[in-house]
Structures are given as structure tokens and as C-alpha cells.
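User: Can you predict the 3D structure of Beta-defensin? Sequence below.
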Amino acid sequence: MKILCIFLTFVFTVSSGPSVPQKNTREVAERKRECQLVRGACKPECNSWEYVFYYCGVNPCCVVREYKKPIINKITAKLHQK
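Assistant: Sure. Here are the predicted C-alpha cells for Beta-defensin:
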């Protein structure tokens, strides 16, 4: 009978899942890892050349914007030369 009680106690404690603080810690760690995968950084503030990807816990995940070189139309350039 004691073994049955011990077994049931074990099953109920394990089946309840992780506690809330453990779950939050795990989620924050996953968000930081995802932030690093997109070449971002979790820091208190983003600079003007960065954008907020999402929040890792309290701090934003700052990702550098990609610079795209302006495309100059060859037709427009030829018209200006004449």
C-alpha cells in the first residue's frame, strides 16, 4: 500500500509539468537563441540603424537593417547625358 501511495505521488508530481519560473526561464533562453540566429542582440535600446525584431524577456532584440544600394536606371542616366 505504501508503494502504491509513493508511486501515485510521484506520478502526480511529474505529470504536473515544469513550474512557472522554469518555463519562463526556458522561454527567455529560446528567444535569446532565436535573436542570435537572425544576427541580432538583446540589449536595452536599439540604435537608429537597427529595428526591433521582438523582445527577449524585457529587452528588445535589435537587428541591423540591410543596406540596399539604390538602383540607377540606365535609361534615365542616358536621357540626362543628352
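Residues 54 and 61 are 5 Å apart (CA to CA). The mean pLDDT is 78.
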